Amino acid sequence: QVQLVESGGGLVQAGGSLRLSCAVSGRTFSSIGMGWFRQAPGKEREFVAAISWNGGTEYFEDFERGRFTISRDNAKNTVYLQMNSLKPEDTAVYYCAADSRAYRAIVPTTPTLFGSWGQGTQVTVSS
Hints:
With 127 residues, the protein is mostly beta strands. It contains no helices and eleven strands. It has strands at 3-7, 10-13, 18-25, 32-39, 46-51, 57-59, 68-73, 78-83, 92-102, 114-117, 121-126. The strands form two sheets. Strands 2, 4, 5, 6, 9, 10 and 11 form a seven-stranded mixed beta sheet that branches. A four-stranded antiparallel beta sheet has the order 1-3-8-7, with no helix packed on it.
């Protein structure tokens, strides 16, 4: 059974930084793509970033370049989301997700490609 456990959320002032972590167990981590999504109150869940099994990355197109960075550490079975220059509109519950297919040829970005989800971690950015 796949388990994903997020951590690192919290309250931060606008302009600050947070690093989210997602520890994965129950899958061969190095063979699967990983993604981060977020859901703000009253809004639909939206794609944030994803990284393929071999390190390719994709980001939500509206993000300013470099503000968010996704990375992975296969030795620790963990995927990270570094978030800098945070804005109040970044406030949301952030979810990590694991691709349902190993060795996918593309970076997974749509929710239907992900078969396992974490419980979410709250990120609140105050103005």
